[in-house]
Amino acid sequence: MWVYPEIDPIALQLGPLSIHWYGLMYVVSFAAVWALAHRRRAALGLTGEQIQDLIFYAALGVVLGGRFGYALFYHFDRVLAEPLWIFKVWEGGMSFHGGLLGVLLALLLFVRRYTLSAAQHSGLQHPFWRLSDFIAPLVPIGLGAGRIGNFIGGELWGRPTDLPWGMVFPHVDALARHPSQLYQATLEGLGLFVLLHWYQSHPRPAGAVSGVFLLGYASARFVAEFARQPDAHLGLLMMGLSMGQILTLPMFLVGAWLLQQAYRR
């Protein structure tokens, strides 16, 4: 049994400005995504300026979609009672599923604004799905960094366990719990990153990499949620599943459909 090391969630204090580890993980992940996207931009014929705009669009989609998704999926009753609460971002709360929808909308806007040079010069078909396939292998970087940020912040802890690597979170209770943040960082971050980069290393039909991403993330999140403590105000819902697991079910179905359609084309 391990004891959670009390880590100060504030990484740096600059006068009245507090820089939290969780926010720092966002900065690190966006920087890593930007660097890797620049290395791979020739695959779609994107310019350096277009990559910068793409990352900016995606970042807005993550932040806005993540916040709106958290409010609607996890605190819909509070939104109905206090609609302006959704804009109180300083109180925290982000949803991956909402962030995913935000990124998809951002990609649609990006494709409408730019005509990809690769599509112009080589007759590239399905530019939206090609762009989605380009972005998908980059997403696990942010997922892994975010879960490490959750661990450092001592939040989103796991369910009680008697396994030898169980961890006591003293700020929660005296029970040994799954370090579920590290499980998710490994499955949704490192594992999914390796899978997608192996899969996209060979030519694939448009939309296939995106389909594998949806299948891979949905599977990893569904399994990891069995070790994660459900949200206190929601608990377990239908069939004993958490909200996170329920939200992964349509992702899995869409991923399977997208992969099937990609290879049919």
UniProtKB/TrEMBL annotation:
Q: What is its EC number?
A: 2.5.1.145
Task: Tell me how this protein sits in the membrane.
Answer: Multi-pass membrane protein
Q: Which pathway is it part of?
A: Protein modification; lipoprotein biosynthesis (diacylglyceryl transfer)
> Which EC class heads this enzyme's classification?
transferase
Presence of the UniProt keyword Transmembrane helix in the record: yes
InterPro entries referenced in this protein's UniProt entry, alphabetically: Lgt
Choose any GO biological process term that the UniProt entry carries and state it: lipoprotein biosynthetic process
Q: Which domain of life is it from?
A: Bacteria
Q: Which UniProt keywords apply?
A: Cell membrane, Lipoprotein, Membrane, Transferase, Transmembrane, Transmembrane helix
Q: Which residues bind a 1,2-diacyl-sn-glycero-3-phospho-(1'-sn-glycerol)?
A: R147
Name of the molecule in the record: Phosphatidylglycerol--prolipoprotein diacylglyceryl transferase
**Which is one Pfam family of this protein?**
LGT
Q: What does this protein do?
A: Catalyzes the transfer of the diacylglyceryl group from phosphatidylglycerol to the sulfhydryl group of the N-terminal cysteine of a prolipoprotein, the first step in the formation of mature lipoproteins.
Q: Which GO terms describe its cellular component?
A: plasma membrane
Compartments reported by the entry:
Cell membrane
Natural source organism: Allopseudospirillum japonicum
GO molecular function terms attached to this record: phosphatidylglycerol-prolipoprotein diacylglyceryl transferase activity
What gene is this protein translated from?
Answer: lgt
Family that this chain belongs to: Belongs to the Lgt family.
